Write the structure tokens for this entry.
Amino acid sequence: MGDEFYEIDGDRCTKCIGHYDAPTCQQVCPIDNTIIVDPQRTESNEHLWDKFVGLHPAG
Ligand code: SF4
């Protein structure tokens, strides 16, 4: 509601793989269908896991 909005950085989003069983932002957002998957960015779970490991190299 307003001029300010947030954009998810797809290079840092793992769809919560490595942290939770499902995308947490979608679960906690009170408005349905506001956080949607970018159709240009189709990533396998294996790729998302590799991204997670790359973002958290110390373990
Ligand atoms: S909460 Fe999970 S699914 Fe949502 S932007 Fe963050 S990493 Fe991605």
